[in-house]
Design brief:
The structure holds 2 protein chains of 2 kinds.
Chain A: H1 2-20, E1 22-26, E2 32-37, E3 43-50, H2 64-71, H3 83-90, E4 94-99, E5 104-111, H4 115-127, H5 133-152, H6 155-167, H7 181-186, H8 189-199, E6 205-211, H9 215-226, E7 249-256, E8 261-268, H10 279-291, H11 297-305, E9 309-316, E10 324-332, H12 338-355, H13 359-375, H14 380-392, H15 399-409, H16 412-422, E11 428-436
Parallel strand pairs in A: 2-6, 7-11
Antiparallel strand pairs in A: 1-2, 3-5, 3-6, 4-5, 8-10, 8-11, 9-10
Helix pairs in contact in A: 1-13, 1-15, 2-5, 2-8, 4-9, 10-16, 11-12, 12-16
Chain B: H1 2-14, E1 25-28, E2 34-39, E3 45-52, H2 66-73, H3 83-92, E4 96-101, E5 106-113, H4 116-131, H5 137-154, H6 158-171, H7 182-186, H8 190-200, E6 207-212, H9 216-227, E7 249-253, E8 259-267, H10 276-288, H11 294-301, E9 309-315, E10 319-329, H12 333-350, H13 354-366, H14 368-371, H15 375-387, H16 394-403, H17 407-417, E11 424-428
Parallel strand pairs in B: 2-6, 7-11
Antiparallel strand pairs in B: 1-2, 3-5, 3-6, 4-5, 8-10, 8-11, 9-10
Classes of the chains: A alpha+beta, B alpha+beta.
Chain lengths: 452, 439
């Protein structure tokens, strides 16, 4: 173990050094610009993060954050429809965008010489977007196709959508990011334009540039391209929460599939104060103890030893604007029921709550976190992502090394304490997929079809 | 402002971006394995991949799926290590073991810290998984059951149903089109895995790729350590030729999903084919180039018919598939299918314009630095260059090869390779009124 501690100390230095290459400046219009220098390859990424996600939507217009994301590619006065993507492509770039509960972000990856081109285009559509009825009418159809593809025809996505809607009854995490189909059908260009006018402003955004750049040059360019965009008047954000759950919630989704599936989700805290909070770190370690490698508790007991499940997974995200969920999902093995899997899962959790975790398990999770911190530096894009996520969640990129340090300080007692508090039925929603046979399911043809 | 942007575009035509490609060192290990190494001390880590001609294309009739199960069992028990030992010991040092399996290749990859203790411990485990896998009976029984369940699940999901039907339509009886059935998996025995392993995981056809924070001397020692104890590997490393010309077909398969999943294609191009670059660049224009391709423009941008529509060539040892795909709601399936067929037909008949070609070259050439901007990506290139025995200058020549492609070459290559009237079409979740119709 001593050898390992030396390595940890070394790697923490590496991480601290990495964070030292991050520079931050806020323009007078409120746009925060963060630069992560990384000179390993002659490339860069520009990401702009708007603090406007599906959680900011209102009843009847769910999905509008994501619809607007699509429409952001539909042109401005100076850059007609289709031109944005063509110019980025001609510069050798890759681009896209993504919307989540918490934020909407746009990115371009390019050779290092193309930063001003990317900034010119991105800053233009921050305040000059054109909203045409014709483009809206086509794009809303595209989004409905996206919803069918991602959710309606994907049994497990559908299950997660219903799970979120059940677990969160007050908090807007209740609504899917892609929006309810009815809302998409009723959406208008006006809804999208309202959204744009409300939230797309420099003082509601974080610009992250990472890669082979000089921070001073990036700040100068950011001032040139984004500096003159006027700050917007942002609406008051109402605090939203979720009252304590009063008992276990259960739901079932029927969809065409062969295998049943079970998801158990407990309400869990997320990080608010990187220095003072401890539970989210303990929960991160708990994920590792349960599911950090294929011999971790859940896979070893349920899949390998008892063979009650085909697979099992655990998820928890400590960084978010809203409340968290600690999720365990599993597929029963053929001949086993979701009930048997739930019982087996509960037995493992009870064991952990009763006996705690071993020093070895704790150390193993920390070793993985530490190594992951080095591996992360192989991806400029991911490093920028992490910064953007932190800022959008209302934290700071400066919290990243703090979080790493805090994770290393988590004790076995803390993991046991947080597990005891977490795994209560009064925090739990259980969703199960009830597989429905296809109407005219073909019979298993056997090996004969391959006969030559 | 627009004029400024346009002038920037024009400028990028003449300014050819210069950059350094990684220096690839290549040698043959005493074991016979081919080794490809890039030394880079930028990060304290090492990536290694060892691949073999042992992918799905090496399955034999009556033993479909053996290649895949053999691959899947490599890290589930090795000399003196149980599957739990392997997972736990790797986690203890923060190392990550991964794998690669496709129609041609099978192999393991490892990412580890480069500090001596961690590196050595991680390589020790990789060496044993590669050279002394045990294929334990009890683990095999469990893995077979898991695989069978996942096959049954796949038979209910439209995307998997489409992939399977498409493979059979494009490749017929060639192993590139085989999918293991439940009955295939049920009869797999431990001896099958041992036999497949001994025949196909030989040092003489092994390709070792190393990228990262080690010296040449260390790389030489590691490559030998990972391959010295491999079996003889008696099997040929060639896959049977693919029948290039297929008969047109159209399969409409019912499914309750709201969308139709449409796949259209034919055998395409092999990795070492001289048409590779014209087809690659041409396909960027047809359906490979993200938001700016012709298919995307016709299907999504102009008409809003689909979220995703694409085309690609999958270059393999033998010609892999040329494939067009999209999903659209059932009521629009026939309209979309007609549109895609028209777009393809026009493309093959008339080829591309000089303007389109210029834009394609700007993107592929100008975007080259993004292809090699991480250790992970370079490792993947080393694996491909090594496995398909591409020139060591492949990365250096890439931009020039793209730049040399002409509109005429693209038209010629597509005309010779892609017959729009002889494509395999699969529609899963087909519109009800036409279910069962045959072309």
């Amino acid at each position: 173990m001593r050898v390992h501690l030396v390595v940890v100390a070394l790697l923490l230095q590496v991480a601290a050094a990495a964070q030292a290459e991050v520079y931050e400046r806020t323009l007078s219009n409120g746009l925060k610009v963060i630069v992560k220098e990384d000179h390993r390859a002659p490339v860069l990424v520009q990401q702009i993060w708007y603090r406007a996600g599906s959680m900011d939507e209102r009843t009847g217009v769910t999905g509008v954050a994501h619809v607007l994301e699509h429409l952001m590619f539909k042109g401005t006065k100076d850059v007609p429809v289709g031109q944005f993507s063509k110019v980025i492509a001609a510069a050798g770039g890759r681009e896209n965008a993504f919307t989540s509960y918490d934020h909407t972000a746009y990115f371009q990856q390019l050779h290092r010489s193309k930063l001003s081109l990317a900034m010119k285009l991105e800053s233009d559509r921050m305040h000059n977007l054109l909203m045409s009825e014709k483009e809206f009418a086509k794009e809303i159809k595209v989004v409905m196709e996206e919803r069918r593809w991602r959710t309606d025809d994907e049994p497990r996505s559908l299950l997660f959508e219903k799970l979120m809607a059940a677990a969160f009854q007050e908090h807007p995490y209740h609504n899917p990011v892609i929006g309810w189909m009815t809302d998409l059908q009723n959406m208008t260009a006006e809804d999208a334009l309202d959204w744009y006018k409300t939230w797309y402003a420099p003082n509601n955004a974080t610009l992250v540039i990472a890669g082979d750049v000089r921070a001073s040059e990036v700040f100068a360019l950011a001032q040139r391209y984004y500096g003159s965009i006027p700050a917007g008047e942002l609406p008051q954000r109402k605090a939203v929460g979720e009252s304590a759950q009063l008992g276990i919630k259960r739901l079932t989704v029927k969809a065409p599939a062969e295998l049943p599936f079970i998801v158990m989700a407990w309400h869990a805290p997320t990080l608010r104060d990187a220095e003072k909070d401890w539970k989210p770190y303990a929960l991160d370690v708990l994920v590792g103890v349960l599911d950090g490698n294929s011999s971790a508790r859940l896979n070893k007991s349920l899949v390998r030893e008892q063979q009650v499940a085909m697979d099992v997974g655990t998820g928890y995200d400590s960084v978010a604007r809203g409340p968290g969920l600690f999720v365990i999902e599993a597929t029963p093995r053929e001949g086993k029921t979701v009930g048997e899997v739930e019982t087996a899962l509960r037995a493992q959790l009870a064991l952990l709550v009763r006996d705690g975790v071993s020093a070895e398990e704790l150390q193993r999770v920390k070793a993985q976190v530490t190594a992951g911190e080095v591996y992360k530096r192989d991806s400029v894009f991911y490093q920028a992502m992490q910064i953007g996520q932190m800022e959008s969640a209302g934290m700071s990129h400066k919290d990243i090394p703090v979080m790493l340090q805090k994770l290393q300080e988590v004790t076995a007692q803390q993991v046991q304490d947080v597990a005891r508090e977490l795994f209560s039925d009064d925090r739990l929603t259980v969703a199960t997929l009830d597989p429905q046979p296809l109407p005219d399911k073909p019979k298993h043809a056997g090996g004969a079809v391959h006969a030559h | 402002m627009l004029t400024k942007i346009l002038s920037a575009v024009v400028l990028s035509l003449v300014v050819n971006v210069a950059f350094a490609t990684p220096e690839i060192q290549h040698w043959q290990a005493p074991s016979g394995a081919r080794v490809y190494f890039v030394e880079d001390h930028g990060l304290p880590m090492l990536d290694v991949a060892v691949n073999f001609p042992a992918g799905g294309g090496f399955d034999t009739a009556g033993k479909v799926g053996v290649s895949h199960v053999t691959f899947g069992m490599l890290d589930l028990g090795a000399q003196e290590l149980s599957e739990d030992d392997i997972a736990r010991k790797l986690a203890d040092i923060g190392a990550q073991l991964g794998g690669n399996f496709d129609s041609d290749r099978a192999g393991l990859s490892l990412r580890t810290l480069s500090s001596a203790k961690e590196r050595d411990a991680a390589l020790d485990i990789l060496a044993r998984c590669l050279q002394q896998p045990l294929f334990p009976e009890d683990v095999l029984a469990r893995e077979k059951a898991r695989l069978i369940a996942s096959l049954k699940e796949a038979e209910t999901q439209p995307e998997s149903i489409a992939d399977k039907a498409f493979g059979q339509a494009v490749f017929g009886v060639h192993p590139y089109g085989w999918h293991a059935e439940v009955a295939d998996v049920e009869k797999i025995q431990r001896a099958d895995l041992e036999g497949f392993y001994r025949a196909h995981y030989g040092a003489k056809h092994a390709v070792v790729a190393l990228m990262g924070d080690i010296s040449r001397a260390q790389a030489e020692a590691i490559a030998q350590r990972l391959t010295a104890k491999l079996p003889d590997g008696v099997a040929d490393d060639r896959i049977a030729p693919v029948m290039i010309r297929i008969k047109p077909s159209e399969q409409r398969i019912a499914h309750p999903a709201s969308q139709s999943h449409i796949l259209i294609g034919t055998p395409g191009v092999a990795r070492n084919d001289e048409d590779y670059f014209p087809l690659y660049v041409g396909n960027y224009i047809l359906g490979g180039g993200g938001f700016v391709s012709r298919l995307m423009h016709e299907v999504r941008e102009k008409r809003g018919l689909a979220y995703s529509v694409y085309s690609y060539f999958m270059p393999m040892q033998q010609p892999g598939a040329f494939q067009i795909g999209l999903q659209t709601k059932k009521e629009q399936a026939d309209e979309s299918l007609g549109l895609v067929r028209d777009t393809l037909k026009t493309f093959v008949q008339n080829g591309v314009t000089e303007k389109e070609l210029r834009a394609a070259k700007q993107n592929i050439g100008g975007g080259f630095p993004l292809r090699i901007d991480s250790n992970r990506k370079i490792l993947d290139y080393l694996g491909v260059i090594g496995f398909y025995e591409l020139p060591l200058t492949y990365l250096d020549d890439f931009t020039a090869n793209v730049g040399a492609v002409t509109t005429r070459q693209i038209r010629d290559a597509f005309k010779r390779r892609i017959d729009p009237d002889a494509m395999a079409t699969v529609i899963v979740g087909a519109p009800v009124e036409k279910t069962g119709a045959e072309k």
